[in-house]
Amino acid sequence: MLLEGVPASSGIQIGTALLFHREDFDVPTYTIDESEIEKEIKKFESALIQTRKELEEIQSKIQKEMSSIHAGIFSAHILLLEDPMFVDEVKKEITISKLNSAAAVKNVVQNIIDQFSTMDNEYLRGREADIRDVVSRLIQNILGKEKIDLSSLKKEVIVISHDLSPSDTALMNKDKVIGFATDVGSKTSHTAIMARALEIPAVVGLGKITSYVKTGDLVIIDGNRGRVLINPDGEVYEEYLIEQSKFQEFEQSLSMLKDMPAVTLDGTHIELACNIEVPEELSSIQKYGAKGIGLYRTEYIFIRKRTELPSEEEQYESYKEAVEKVAPEAVIIRTLDLGGDKFASSLGIPADVGSMMGLRAIRLCLQYPFIFMPQLRAILRASAYGNAKIMFPMISRVEELRLAKVMLDQAKSELEYEGLPFDPNIEIGTMIEVPSAVVTADILAKECDFFSIGTNDLIQYTLAVHRVNEEIAHLYEPLNPAILRLIKQVIDIAHENGIWVGICGEMASDPLVVPLLIGMGVDELSMSPIAVPEVKKIIRSLTVEEAQKITQVAMSFSTANEIESYVYSEAMERFPDVLMWIDHRLH
Ligand code: PEP
Ligand code: MG
Description:
- The protein is an alpha/beta fold.
- 50% of the residues lie in helices and 14% in strands.
- The longest helix is centred in the N-terminal third of the chain and has 29 residues, at 37-65.
- It binds phosphoenolpyruvate and magnesium ion (MG).
Protein backbone atom coordinates (compact mmCIF):
# COMPACT_ATOMS: atom_id res chain seq x y z
CA MET A 1 0.00 0.00 0.00
CA LEU A 2 1.24 3.48 -0.90
CA LEU A 3 0.25 6.56 1.09
CA GLU A 4 1.09 10.07 -0.01
CA GLY A 5 1.65 12.87 2.47
CA VAL A 6 3.89 15.86 2.94
CA PRO A 7 7.67 15.43 2.63
CA ALA A 8 8.82 16.79 5.98
CA SER A 9 12.45 15.74 6.25
CA SER A 10 14.60 14.30 3.49
CA GLY A 11 16.05 10.80 3.27
CA ILE A 12 14.85 7.27 2.62
CA GLN A 13 14.51 4.66 5.36
CA ILE A 14 13.34 1.07 5.21
CA GLY A 15 12.45 -0.59 8.49
CA THR A 16 10.01 -2.09 10.92
CA ALA A 17 7.02 -0.06 12.03
CA LEU A 18 6.29 0.79 15.62
CA LEU A 19 2.75 2.07 16.09
CA PHE A 20 3.17 4.68 18.77
CA HIS A 21 0.09 6.82 19.24
CA ARG A 22 -3.37 6.69 17.83
CA GLU A 23 -5.51 9.77 17.73
CA ASP A 24 -7.57 8.92 20.80
CA PHE A 25 -6.89 7.05 23.96
CA ASP A 26 -8.26 3.58 23.33
CA VAL A 27 -10.08 3.34 26.64
CA PRO A 28 -12.70 0.74 27.57
CA THR A 29 -15.71 2.40 29.25
CA TYR A 30 -18.13 0.57 31.54
CA THR A 31 -20.15 1.17 34.67
CA ILE A 32 -19.13 -0.43 37.90
CA ASP A 33 -20.97 -1.73 40.95
CA GLU A 34 -21.14 0.23 44.20
CA SER A 35 -18.94 -2.49 45.72
CA GLU A 36 -16.20 -1.93 43.13
CA ILE A 37 -15.80 1.83 43.72
CA GLU A 38 -13.10 1.43 46.32
CA LYS A 39 -11.14 -1.02 44.16
CA GLU A 40 -11.24 1.38 41.17
CA ILE A 41 -10.08 4.31 43.31
CA LYS A 42 -7.18 2.17 44.57
CA LYS A 43 -6.32 1.23 40.99
CA PHE A 44 -6.26 4.93 40.07
CA GLU A 45 -4.10 5.82 43.08
CA SER A 46 -1.51 3.13 42.44
CA ALA A 47 -1.36 4.12 38.75
CA LEU A 48 -0.68 7.70 39.91
CA ILE A 49 2.23 6.50 42.04
CA GLN A 50 3.62 4.29 39.26
CA THR A 51 3.36 7.09 36.68
CA ARG A 52 5.10 9.49 38.98
CA LYS A 53 7.92 7.00 39.53
CA GLU A 54 8.34 6.46 35.80
CA LEU A 55 8.44 10.17 35.09
CA GLU A 56 11.05 10.71 37.80
CA GLU A 57 13.19 7.95 36.28
CA ILE A 58 12.96 9.50 32.82
CA GLN A 59 13.71 12.90 34.32
CA SER A 60 16.94 11.79 35.98
CA LYS A 61 18.00 9.88 32.85
CA ILE A 62 17.47 12.96 30.70
CA GLN A 63 19.23 15.15 33.23
CA LYS A 64 22.29 12.91 33.02
CA GLU A 65 22.29 12.41 29.26
CA MET A 66 21.02 15.70 27.93
CA SER A 67 20.37 18.74 30.04
CA SER A 68 18.33 20.14 32.86
CA ILE A 69 16.36 22.16 30.31
CA HIS A 70 15.02 18.93 28.79
CA ALA A 71 14.50 17.39 32.22
CA GLY A 72 12.38 20.39 33.25
CA ILE A 73 9.60 19.19 30.96
CA PHE A 74 9.02 16.26 33.24
CA SER A 75 8.72 18.33 36.42
CA ALA A 76 5.74 19.92 34.73
CA HIS A 77 4.28 16.52 34.01
CA ILE A 78 4.71 15.40 37.61
CA LEU A 79 3.03 18.56 38.88
CA LEU A 80 -0.02 17.75 36.82
CA LEU A 81 -0.32 14.33 38.46
CA GLU A 82 -0.37 16.01 41.83
CA ASP A 83 -2.98 18.60 40.98
CA PRO A 84 -5.71 18.07 43.63
CA MET A 85 -8.40 19.38 41.25
CA PHE A 86 -7.58 16.62 38.82
CA VAL A 87 -7.22 13.85 41.39
CA ASP A 88 -10.44 14.78 43.24
CA GLU A 89 -12.44 15.13 40.03
CA VAL A 90 -11.44 11.64 38.90
CA LYS A 91 -12.40 10.14 42.26
CA LYS A 92 -15.75 11.96 42.06
CA GLU A 93 -16.34 10.62 38.56
CA ILE A 94 -15.67 7.07 39.77
CA THR A 95 -17.92 7.45 42.83
CA ILE A 96 -20.81 9.45 41.39
CA SER A 97 -20.91 8.33 37.75
CA LYS A 98 -19.81 4.79 38.69
CA LEU A 99 -17.31 4.65 35.86
CA ASN A 100 -14.24 2.43 35.64
CA SER A 101 -11.13 4.41 36.60
CA ALA A 102 -9.57 4.62 33.11
CA ALA A 103 -12.79 6.03 31.62
CA ALA A 104 -13.15 8.44 34.56
CA VAL A 105 -9.64 9.79 33.89
CA LYS A 106 -10.41 10.14 30.21
CA ASN A 107 -13.65 12.10 30.88
CA VAL A 108 -12.08 14.46 33.39
CA VAL A 109 -9.17 15.14 31.08
CA GLN A 110 -11.44 15.78 28.13
CA ASN A 111 -13.26 18.41 30.21
CA ILE A 112 -10.00 20.11 31.11
CA ILE A 113 -8.83 20.07 27.50
CA ASP A 114 -12.17 21.50 26.32
CA GLN A 115 -11.88 24.33 28.83
CA PHE A 116 -8.30 25.06 27.80
CA SER A 117 -9.08 25.17 24.12
CA THR A 118 -11.60 27.98 24.61
CA MET A 119 -9.14 30.08 26.59
CA ASP A 120 -7.69 33.22 25.14
CA ASN A 121 -4.33 32.61 26.74
CA GLU A 122 -1.96 30.92 24.29
CA TYR A 123 0.46 29.96 27.05
CA LEU A 124 -2.19 28.14 29.05
CA ARG A 125 -3.47 26.43 25.94
CA GLY A 126 0.03 25.02 25.59
CA ARG A 127 -0.61 22.98 28.73
CA GLU A 128 -2.85 20.66 26.67
CA ALA A 129 0.18 18.88 25.28
CA ASP A 130 1.47 18.15 28.79
CA ILE A 131 -1.89 16.87 29.92
CA ARG A 132 -2.25 14.50 26.96
CA ASP A 133 1.24 13.19 27.50
CA VAL A 134 0.86 12.41 31.17
CA VAL A 135 -2.62 11.09 30.86
CA SER A 136 -1.88 8.54 28.15
CA ARG A 137 0.89 7.22 30.42
CA LEU A 138 -1.49 7.17 33.40
CA ILE A 139 -4.23 5.37 31.47
CA GLN A 140 -1.75 2.81 30.19
CA ASN A 141 -0.74 2.17 33.79
CA ILE A 142 -4.35 1.76 34.92
CA LEU A 143 -4.95 -0.68 32.09
CA GLY A 144 -1.64 -2.42 32.71
CA LYS A 145 -0.63 -2.04 29.07
CA GLU A 146 2.90 -2.43 27.85
CA LYS A 147 4.42 1.00 27.35
CA ILE A 148 6.61 2.17 24.56
CA ASP A 149 9.56 4.28 25.57
CA LEU A 150 11.22 5.93 22.60
CA SER A 151 14.42 6.51 24.58
CA SER A 152 15.26 2.89 25.29
CA LEU A 153 14.29 1.02 22.16
CA LYS A 154 16.41 -2.04 21.52
CA LYS A 155 15.94 -2.23 17.76
CA GLU A 156 15.77 0.29 14.97
CA VAL A 157 12.19 1.30 14.19
CA ILE A 158 10.14 3.65 12.10
CA VAL A 159 7.68 5.37 14.41
CA ILE A 160 4.12 5.70 13.14
CA SER A 161 2.06 8.12 15.18
CA HIS A 162 -0.92 10.41 14.98
CA ASP A 163 1.50 13.20 15.90
CA LEU A 164 4.56 13.46 18.12
CA SER A 165 4.46 15.42 21.34
CA PRO A 166 7.38 17.48 22.71
CA SER A 167 8.25 14.83 25.29
CA ASP A 168 8.11 12.07 22.63
CA THR A 169 10.64 13.97 20.55
CA ALA A 170 12.82 14.94 23.50
CA LEU A 171 13.03 11.26 24.44
CA MET A 172 13.61 9.96 20.96
CA ASN A 173 16.86 8.08 20.50
CA LYS A 174 18.01 9.12 17.03
CA ASP A 175 20.01 5.92 16.56
CA LYS A 176 16.93 3.78 17.02
CA VAL A 177 14.17 5.96 15.58
CA ILE A 178 15.33 5.94 11.98
CA GLY A 179 12.26 7.63 10.53
CA PHE A 180 8.74 8.69 11.37
CA ALA A 181 5.38 9.24 9.76
CA THR A 182 2.37 11.03 11.21
CA ASP A 183 -1.31 11.49 10.39
CA VAL A 184 -1.26 15.27 10.83
CA GLY A 185 1.07 18.14 10.02
CA SER A 186 2.33 20.10 7.04
CA LYS A 187 5.73 21.18 5.75
CA THR A 188 5.80 24.32 7.85
CA SER A 189 4.31 22.73 10.97
CA HIS A 190 6.31 22.45 14.16
CA THR A 191 6.59 18.64 13.80
CA ALA A 192 8.10 18.94 10.32
CA ILE A 193 10.53 21.65 11.37
CA MET A 194 11.64 19.47 14.32
CA ALA A 195 12.14 16.44 12.04
CA ARG A 196 14.55 18.45 9.92
CA ALA A 197 16.28 19.76 13.03
CA LEU A 198 16.82 16.19 14.25
CA GLU A 199 17.73 15.02 10.72
CA ILE A 200 15.26 12.14 10.84
CA PRO A 201 13.58 11.31 7.49
CA ALA A 202 9.87 11.96 7.93
CA VAL A 203 6.55 12.23 6.15
CA VAL A 204 3.66 14.08 7.81
CA GLY A 205 0.04 14.88 6.95
CA LEU A 206 -0.70 11.32 5.82
CA GLY A 207 -4.29 11.42 7.06
CA LYS A 208 -4.87 7.98 8.51
CA ILE A 209 -1.60 6.10 8.45
CA THR A 210 -2.17 4.99 12.06
CA SER A 211 -5.21 3.00 10.85
CA TYR A 212 -3.29 1.13 8.16
CA VAL A 213 -0.05 0.21 9.90
CA LYS A 214 0.48 -2.41 12.61
CA THR A 215 3.62 -2.73 14.72
CA GLY A 216 6.00 -5.07 12.92
CA ASP A 217 4.91 -4.13 9.38
CA LEU A 218 7.67 -3.39 6.91
CA VAL A 219 7.53 0.28 5.91
CA ILE A 220 9.48 2.52 3.60
CA ILE A 221 9.67 6.23 4.41
CA ASP A 222 10.48 8.39 1.41
CA GLY A 223 11.01 11.77 3.06
CA ASN A 224 12.08 13.27 -0.26
CA ARG A 225 8.81 12.69 -2.06
CA GLY A 226 6.42 12.42 0.85
CA ARG A 227 5.57 8.75 0.39
CA VAL A 228 5.14 5.85 2.77
CA LEU A 229 4.94 2.27 1.47
CA ILE A 230 3.44 -0.34 3.75
CA ASN A 231 4.50 -3.99 3.27
CA PRO A 232 5.76 -3.38 -0.30
CA ASP A 233 6.23 -6.34 -2.64
CA GLY A 234 9.71 -7.68 -3.38
CA GLU A 235 10.15 -5.66 -6.56
CA VAL A 236 9.30 -2.30 -4.96
CA TYR A 237 11.48 -3.18 -1.98
CA GLU A 238 14.46 -3.85 -4.27
CA GLU A 239 13.84 -0.60 -6.17
CA TYR A 240 13.86 1.34 -2.93
CA LEU A 241 17.08 -0.26 -1.76
CA ILE A 242 18.68 1.08 -4.95
CA GLU A 243 17.01 4.50 -4.46
CA GLN A 244 18.32 4.64 -0.94
CA SER A 245 21.92 4.03 -1.94
CA LYS A 246 21.63 6.52 -4.82
CA PHE A 247 20.37 9.16 -2.41
CA GLN A 248 23.27 8.46 -0.06
CA GLU A 249 25.68 8.90 -2.99
CA PHE A 250 23.97 12.18 -3.86
CA GLU A 251 24.33 13.44 -0.28
CA GLN A 252 27.96 12.36 -0.31
CA SER A 253 28.55 14.38 -3.48
CA LEU A 254 27.00 17.44 -1.83
CA SER A 255 29.25 17.16 1.19
CA MET A 256 32.19 18.07 -1.08
CA LEU A 257 30.72 21.59 -1.24
CA LYS A 258 31.09 22.06 2.50
CA ASP A 259 34.06 24.40 2.36
CA MET A 260 33.23 26.04 -0.96
CA PRO A 261 31.73 29.55 -0.99
CA ALA A 262 28.08 30.20 -1.79
CA VAL A 263 28.72 32.23 -4.96
CA THR A 264 26.93 32.29 -8.30
CA LEU A 265 28.80 31.42 -11.51
CA ASP A 266 29.50 35.13 -11.99
CA GLY A 267 30.84 35.59 -8.48
CA THR A 268 27.96 37.13 -6.52
CA HIS A 269 28.06 36.05 -2.90
CA ILE A 270 24.80 34.96 -1.24
CA GLU A 271 24.87 34.74 2.55
CA LEU A 272 23.85 31.21 3.62
CA ALA A 273 22.73 30.87 7.23
CA CYS A 274 20.90 28.39 9.42
CA ASN A 275 17.59 28.31 11.26
CA ILE A 276 18.06 26.92 14.74
CA GLU A 277 15.35 25.57 16.97
CA VAL A 278 17.32 23.78 19.68
CA PRO A 279 20.92 24.17 20.93
CA GLU A 280 21.73 20.62 19.74
CA GLU A 281 21.62 21.98 16.19
CA LEU A 282 24.55 24.32 16.77
CA SER A 283 27.04 21.64 15.76
CA SER A 284 25.26 21.13 12.41
CA ILE A 285 26.00 24.65 11.17
CA GLN A 286 29.63 23.98 10.37
CA LYS A 287 29.00 20.34 9.46
CA TYR A 288 26.84 21.44 6.53
CA GLY A 289 29.01 24.34 5.45
CA ALA A 290 26.96 27.30 6.60
CA LYS A 291 28.29 30.19 8.61
CA GLY A 292 25.94 32.12 10.83
CA ILE A 293 22.43 31.78 12.22
CA GLY A 294 19.78 33.64 10.24
CA LEU A 295 16.95 32.71 12.59
CA TYR A 296 17.21 31.58 16.19
CA ARG A 297 13.66 30.47 17.11
CA THR A 298 13.83 31.32 20.83
CA GLU A 299 10.36 30.00 21.62
CA TYR A 300 11.69 26.46 22.04
CA ILE A 301 13.50 27.57 25.19
CA PHE A 302 10.09 28.57 26.52
CA ILE A 303 8.25 25.51 25.20
CA ARG A 304 10.70 23.08 26.73
CA LYS A 305 10.56 24.86 30.06
CA ARG A 306 6.79 24.60 30.23
CA THR A 307 5.57 25.30 33.82
CA GLU A 308 7.40 28.53 34.34
CA LEU A 309 9.09 31.12 32.20
CA PRO A 310 12.80 30.63 31.60
CA SER A 311 14.78 33.15 33.64
CA GLU A 312 16.85 35.95 32.11
CA GLU A 313 19.95 34.04 33.22
CA GLU A 314 18.93 30.79 31.48
CA GLN A 315 18.09 32.65 28.30
CA TYR A 316 21.34 34.58 28.45
CA GLU A 317 23.32 31.32 28.74
CA SER A 318 21.57 29.83 25.68
CA TYR A 319 21.98 32.92 23.51
CA LYS A 320 25.58 33.40 24.61
CA GLU A 321 26.40 29.79 23.72
CA ALA A 322 25.11 30.36 20.17
CA VAL A 323 26.77 33.77 19.79
CA GLU A 324 30.16 32.48 20.96
CA LYS A 325 29.92 29.32 18.87
CA VAL A 326 29.43 31.08 15.52
CA ALA A 327 31.46 34.27 16.15
CA PRO A 328 32.57 36.24 14.18
CA GLU A 329 29.56 35.27 12.04
CA ALA A 330 26.17 36.71 12.98
CA VAL A 331 23.41 35.18 15.09
CA ILE A 332 20.01 36.70 14.45
CA ILE A 333 18.03 36.13 17.61
CA ARG A 334 14.33 36.41 17.07
CA THR A 335 12.30 37.49 20.08
CA LEU A 336 9.61 35.17 21.35
CA ASP A 337 7.10 34.00 18.74
CA LEU A 338 4.71 31.97 20.87
CA GLY A 339 1.33 31.04 19.49
CA GLY A 340 -0.03 29.46 16.36
CA ASP A 341 1.06 25.85 15.98
CA LYS A 342 3.94 26.24 18.40
CA PHE A 343 1.77 24.45 20.94
CA ALA A 344 -1.11 22.87 19.19
CA SER A 345 0.63 20.70 16.63
CA SER A 346 1.71 18.25 19.31
CA LEU A 347 -1.94 17.73 20.22
CA GLY A 348 -2.84 16.43 16.83
CA ILE A 349 -5.31 19.22 16.21
CA PRO A 350 -4.54 22.10 13.89
CA ALA A 351 -4.34 25.28 15.93
CA ASP A 352 -7.62 27.13 15.96
CA VAL A 353 -7.89 29.81 13.33
CA GLY A 354 -8.01 32.62 15.86
CA SER A 355 -4.70 31.85 17.46
CA MET A 356 -2.67 32.33 14.28
CA MET A 357 -4.14 35.82 14.07
CA GLY A 358 -4.46 36.27 17.81
CA LEU A 359 -2.22 37.31 20.65
CA ARG A 360 0.89 35.87 19.03
CA ALA A 361 4.58 36.84 18.81
CA ILE A 362 5.34 40.56 19.20
CA ARG A 363 1.75 41.29 20.24
CA LEU A 364 2.08 38.95 23.22
CA CYS A 365 5.48 40.37 24.14
CA LEU A 366 4.37 44.00 24.01
CA GLN A 367 1.37 43.16 26.15
CA TYR A 368 3.44 41.31 28.76
CA PRO A 369 6.66 43.22 29.55
CA PHE A 370 7.43 40.72 32.34
CA ILE A 371 8.00 38.18 29.54
CA PHE A 372 9.61 40.55 27.04
CA MET A 373 12.03 42.58 29.17
CA PRO A 374 14.04 39.63 30.53
CA GLN A 375 14.42 38.32 26.99
CA LEU A 376 15.60 41.69 25.66
CA ARG A 377 18.10 41.96 28.50
CA ALA A 378 19.32 38.38 27.90
CA ILE A 379 19.84 39.01 24.17
CA LEU A 380 21.66 42.27 24.84
CA ARG A 381 23.92 40.64 27.42
CA ALA A 382 24.76 37.83 24.97
CA SER A 383 25.59 40.44 22.31
CA ALA A 384 28.77 41.30 24.26
CA TYR A 385 30.27 37.95 23.17
CA GLY A 386 30.17 38.15 19.39
CA ASN A 387 27.96 39.31 16.55
CA ALA A 388 24.34 39.22 17.71
CA LYS A 389 21.43 40.86 15.95
CA ILE A 390 17.86 41.10 17.21
CA MET A 391 14.70 40.60 15.17
CA PHE A 392 11.01 41.10 15.96
CA PRO A 393 8.40 38.64 14.59
CA MET A 394 4.95 39.32 13.17
CA ILE A 395 5.25 43.09 12.91
CA SER A 396 2.02 44.31 11.34
CA ARG A 397 2.31 48.07 11.91
CA VAL A 398 5.18 50.47 12.58
CA GLU A 399 3.97 51.31 16.10
CA GLU A 400 4.86 47.76 17.18
CA LEU A 401 8.40 48.16 15.92
CA ARG A 402 8.68 51.54 17.65
CA LEU A 403 7.41 50.25 20.97
CA ALA A 404 9.70 47.19 20.80
CA LYS A 405 12.63 49.57 20.20
CA VAL A 406 11.62 51.75 23.15
CA MET A 407 11.64 48.66 25.34
CA LEU A 408 15.00 47.61 23.93
CA ASP A 409 16.38 51.07 24.77
CA GLN A 410 15.02 50.72 28.27
CA ALA A 411 16.78 47.34 28.63
CA LYS A 412 20.00 48.98 27.40
CA SER A 413 19.72 51.76 29.98
CA GLU A 414 19.14 49.24 32.76
CA LEU A 415 22.20 47.21 31.77
CA GLU A 416 24.30 50.33 31.48
CA TYR A 417 23.23 51.38 34.96
CA GLU A 418 24.03 47.91 36.29
CA GLY A 419 27.40 47.93 34.55
CA LEU A 420 26.67 44.84 32.46
CA PRO A 421 28.31 44.75 29.00
CA PHE A 422 26.35 44.62 25.71
CA ASP A 423 26.71 45.73 22.09
CA PRO A 424 25.20 49.25 22.05
CA ASN A 425 24.95 49.17 18.25
CA ILE A 426 23.17 45.83 17.98
CA GLU A 427 21.40 45.65 14.59
CA ILE A 428 17.61 45.56 14.69
CA GLY A 429 15.59 43.60 12.14
CA THR A 430 11.93 43.38 11.26
CA MET A 431 10.35 40.14 10.14
CA ILE A 432 8.19 40.71 7.12
CA GLU A 433 5.51 38.06 7.37
CA VAL A 434 2.23 39.94 7.44
CA PRO A 435 0.95 41.54 4.20
CA SER A 436 0.53 44.94 5.88
CA ALA A 437 4.26 44.94 6.64
CA VAL A 438 4.98 44.44 2.92
CA VAL A 439 2.70 47.28 1.94
CA THR A 440 4.34 49.58 4.50
CA ALA A 441 7.88 48.24 4.00
CA ASP A 442 9.12 51.73 3.04
CA ILE A 443 7.99 53.05 6.42
CA LEU A 444 9.47 50.11 8.35
CA ALA A 445 12.76 50.18 6.42
CA LYS A 446 13.50 53.66 7.74
CA GLU A 447 13.29 52.44 11.31
CA CYS A 448 15.36 49.23 11.28
CA ASP A 449 18.65 47.81 9.98
CA PHE A 450 17.44 44.77 8.03
CA PHE A 451 14.42 42.75 6.96
CA SER A 452 13.93 39.01 7.14
CA ILE A 453 10.99 37.66 5.14
CA GLY A 454 9.06 34.94 6.95
CA THR A 455 7.44 33.27 3.99
CA ASN A 456 5.80 30.52 6.08
CA ASP A 457 3.48 33.06 7.63
CA LEU A 458 3.44 35.49 4.72
CA ILE A 459 1.89 32.76 2.55
CA GLN A 460 -0.74 31.84 5.11
CA TYR A 461 -1.76 35.42 5.81
CA THR A 462 -1.73 36.53 2.16
CA LEU A 463 -3.58 33.56 0.69
CA ALA A 464 -5.75 33.03 3.79
CA VAL A 465 -4.58 29.40 4.03
CA HIS A 466 -3.82 28.04 7.50
CA ARG A 467 -0.25 26.73 7.48
CA VAL A 468 -0.78 23.53 9.48
CA ASN A 469 -4.04 22.33 7.99
CA GLU A 470 -3.30 19.39 5.67
CA GLU A 471 -6.81 19.53 4.17
CA ILE A 472 -6.07 22.82 2.42
CA ALA A 473 -2.37 22.13 1.82
CA HIS A 474 -2.95 22.29 -1.96
CA LEU A 475 -3.94 25.95 -1.59
CA TYR A 476 -0.75 26.83 0.27
CA GLU A 477 1.19 28.00 -2.79
CA PRO A 478 4.68 29.48 -2.38
CA LEU A 479 4.78 30.15 -6.12
CA ASN A 480 1.48 32.02 -6.26
CA PRO A 481 2.07 35.26 -8.22
CA ALA A 482 0.85 37.24 -5.20
CA ILE A 483 3.63 35.79 -3.05
CA LEU A 484 6.35 36.38 -5.64
CA ARG A 485 5.23 39.97 -6.14
CA LEU A 486 5.24 40.63 -2.38
CA ILE A 487 8.74 39.20 -1.96
CA LYS A 488 10.06 41.21 -4.91
CA GLN A 489 8.46 44.36 -3.55
CA VAL A 490 10.09 43.88 -0.13
CA ILE A 491 13.54 43.26 -1.62
CA ASP A 492 13.31 46.33 -3.88
CA ILE A 493 12.12 48.60 -1.07
CA ALA A 494 14.78 47.32 1.33
CA HIS A 495 17.50 48.07 -1.21
CA GLU A 496 16.07 51.48 -2.13
CA ASN A 497 16.31 52.31 1.58
CA GLY A 498 19.83 50.99 1.94
CA ILE A 499 19.11 47.98 4.15
CA TRP A 500 19.77 44.29 3.49
CA VAL A 501 17.12 41.60 3.26
CA GLY A 502 17.08 37.88 4.00
CA ILE A 503 14.53 35.09 3.76
CA CYS A 504 14.09 32.67 6.66
CA GLY A 505 10.88 30.85 5.73
CA GLU A 506 10.92 27.40 4.12
CA MET A 507 10.92 28.97 0.63
CA ALA A 508 14.60 29.82 1.18
CA SER A 509 15.50 26.16 0.76
CA ASP A 510 13.04 25.14 -1.94
CA PRO A 511 15.16 24.17 -4.99
CA LEU A 512 12.59 25.57 -7.42
CA VAL A 513 12.36 28.88 -5.62
CA VAL A 514 16.04 29.60 -4.92
CA PRO A 515 16.82 30.80 -8.51
CA LEU A 516 13.88 33.23 -8.28
CA LEU A 517 15.07 34.63 -4.96
CA ILE A 518 18.56 35.16 -6.40
CA GLY A 519 17.02 36.81 -9.45
CA MET A 520 15.10 39.17 -7.17
CA GLY A 521 18.35 40.16 -5.47
CA VAL A 522 17.97 38.66 -1.99
CA ASP A 523 21.06 39.10 0.19
CA GLU A 524 20.72 36.17 2.59
CA LEU A 525 18.97 32.78 2.72
CA SER A 526 18.46 31.02 6.05
CA MET A 527 17.29 27.40 6.41
CA SER A 528 17.52 24.11 8.32
CA PRO A 529 21.19 23.08 8.42
CA ILE A 530 20.58 19.90 6.36
CA ALA A 531 19.22 21.97 3.47
CA VAL A 532 22.37 24.08 3.13
CA PRO A 533 24.46 21.84 0.78
CA GLU A 534 21.67 21.54 -1.81
CA VAL A 535 21.02 25.28 -1.84
CA LYS A 536 24.74 25.98 -2.16
CA LYS A 537 24.86 23.70 -5.18
CA ILE A 538 21.98 25.60 -6.80
CA ILE A 539 23.59 28.98 -6.11
CA ARG A 540 26.81 27.72 -7.70
CA SER A 541 25.01 26.48 -10.81
CA LEU A 542 23.77 29.76 -12.33
CA THR A 543 24.64 33.40 -12.95
CA VAL A 544 22.72 36.32 -11.48
CA GLU A 545 21.80 37.40 -15.00
CA GLU A 546 20.29 33.97 -15.75
CA ALA A 547 18.43 34.05 -12.45
CA GLN A 548 17.06 37.52 -13.28
CA LYS A 549 15.77 36.28 -16.64
CA ILE A 550 14.09 33.27 -15.00
CA THR A 551 12.47 35.59 -12.47
CA GLN A 552 11.23 37.97 -15.13
CA VAL A 553 9.60 35.20 -17.18
CA ALA A 554 8.20 33.43 -14.06
CA MET A 555 6.56 36.64 -12.92
CA SER A 556 4.77 37.08 -16.24
CA PHE A 557 2.60 33.97 -15.63
CA SER A 558 -0.81 34.10 -13.97
CA THR A 559 -0.91 30.94 -11.88
CA ALA A 560 1.29 29.02 -9.45
CA ASN A 561 1.04 25.92 -11.67
CA GLU A 562 2.34 27.75 -14.74
CA ILE A 563 5.17 29.27 -12.74
CA GLU A 564 6.03 25.91 -11.24
CA SER A 565 6.22 24.08 -14.57
CA TYR A 566 8.38 26.85 -15.99
CA VAL A 567 10.87 27.02 -13.10
CA TYR A 568 10.95 23.24 -13.02
CA SER A 569 12.02 23.08 -16.67
CA GLU A 570 14.67 25.74 -16.09
CA ALA A 571 15.95 23.91 -13.02
CA MET A 572 16.03 20.65 -14.99
CA GLU A 573 18.60 22.22 -17.33
CA ARG A 574 20.84 23.48 -14.54
CA PHE A 575 20.67 21.07 -11.61
CA PRO A 576 18.78 17.90 -12.67
CA ASP A 577 20.43 15.82 -9.92
CA VAL A 578 18.80 17.95 -7.21
CA LEU A 579 15.37 17.57 -8.84
CA MET A 580 15.63 13.79 -8.73
CA TRP A 581 15.02 14.05 -5.01
CA ILE A 582 12.06 16.37 -4.73
CA ASP A 583 8.33 15.76 -4.74
CA HIS A 584 7.34 14.96 -8.33
CA ARG A 585 3.60 14.94 -7.79
CA LEU A 586 3.53 18.69 -8.24
CA HIS A 587 5.08 18.76 -11.68
C1 PEP B 1 8.12 32.25 8.85
O1 PEP B 1 6.98 32.56 9.22
O2 PEP B 1 8.44 32.09 7.66
C2 PEP B 1 9.18 32.00 9.85
C3 PEP B 1 10.43 31.83 9.49
O3 PEP B 1 8.84 31.92 11.16
P1 PEP B 1 8.06 30.69 11.83
O4 PEP B 1 8.08 29.54 10.87
O5 PEP B 1 8.77 30.39 13.10
O6 PEP B 1 6.70 31.27 12.04
MG1 MG C 1 6.62 33.25 11.19
